[in-house]
Amino acid sequence: MNYQEIYNIKTSNYIGLLDIYLYIALIGFLILFVKFSMLTVKYHKNKNESKGVSSLLLSILFGVISLFLIGMHISWYMTHLDLVNIIDNKEFQIVEGKVENYNTMNITDKKEESFMVDNILFAYNPAKRTGAFCWIKGDGNPILEGDKVRIKYFKSPDWGDNLILQLEWKSRN
User: How many domains does the chain have?
Assistant: First the structure.
């Protein structure tokens, strides 16, 4: 039986619609807070009060947090695009063999899930936002000890891991 593709970074839809809608909503709330703060300051200024300043500071804090979150997401997406370019430019390595030393991720100690193929270690954790494969056993990853896999990967100098760009698996049936 041929290999079945489990993961491919080029088709992983890393930037999902939920993320897009989330950031559109954050920008919308930011605009509403700024508008509300400006009106509040103007209202209290006309009454010679300084109560509107706290509302303005809250607005600025919310804006800074929103911009920080948007910047983080852009950074994660740019990393994802870099990994897609590695596939396109054929700058990856390929390993094929049996899965050995498979260790599932334990949610309580938050260790990485890991396995080896032909003495090459692959470790991943969904908390690391690279766009590379990070599908843990608890989320339905079908890989088991002894399964045959073919992996296109990139040794990342930035992350220090072998990032899985494409994972193919041979069914046990």
Answer: 2
